[in-house]
Amino acid sequence: MLDVQGLARSYGSHRVVDDVSFTVATGTILAVLGPNGCGKSTTMKVLAGAIPPSAGQFWIDGEPGGSDHARRSTGYVPDTRGVFPRLTGREHLALAARLHRVDVTEPELDALIDRLGLDEVVELPAAAYSHGQSRRLSMAMALVADPPLLLVDEPFDGVDPEGVDTITELLVDARGRGRAVVLTTHLLDAAVVADEVAVFRGHTLVGPYPTAELLLEHGTLGNAWRSLSATR
Fold first, then answer.
1. How many other CB atoms are found less than 10 A from the CB of residue 155?
2. Is the preceding peptide bond at 155 cis, omega within 30 degrees of 0?
3. pLDDT digits (tens, 9 = 90+) for 126-151
4. Whole-structure pTM value
């Protein structure tokens, strides 16, 4: 579903992402780990088509990254609030469906709203949302068109434990329906649901490695993270 080869991104002379390559198959969750400033969010922005790469290339569902097909095949949850203050939650979801050129029925929207616990705020402007509610709305926008690829950048940031469980269940459900998921997170307990884990060492990605093998070798993802990210 996602094939990334030699991806790099620079700002002036500063290279933020350097020679990143990996693949994600359908029905797979890949967790990407790394400290702040390593290039996780920049990589996700490039893959979502928000910014162009400085080098390398990638394909989504067999089509070049940045193409119209690739964009419509991707649901993206940015690491920021990612919402428009004056639009209501329901208007955000309608906008996301239009951008993906899909028809979504009101019962389908209501089911998604209910599952993400947005019932009480969905008719309010997003300016009234808490940070956690904004994160859940961003997740709903990414899921509303049921795209084959989900790019989810720090979805648990500022979300309460119940919200973490809900978002995790949605990602696992997406995997079960054959979707590919790329997840960045600092919440290692949540990353355990991933099939594979990749770790930034400097500004280059190491892996992916099967999660089960990392846990068998290192005991915890925290230990694996520290070992794989260490300069060698």
1. 27
2. no
3. 999 988 899 889 999 999 989 999 99
4. 0.92
Query: Per residue in 100-131, pLDDT tens?
Result: 888 888 898 999 999 999 999 999 999 999 88
Distance CA 78, CA 12 (A): 23
Looking from the CA of 171 toward its CB, the CA atoms found within 13 Å total: 31
Report the pLDDT value the prediction gives residue 137, as an integer from 0 to 100: 93
Q: How far is Cα 190 from Cα 176, in angstroms, rounded to an integer?
A: 17
**Contact (CB, 8 A) for 43 and 31:** no
Place of tokens 């093998």: 213
Superfamily, domain 2-80+147-229: P-loop containing nucleotide triphosphate hydrolases (3.40.50.300)
10 Å CB burial of residue 44 (0-12, 13-18, 19+) is buried
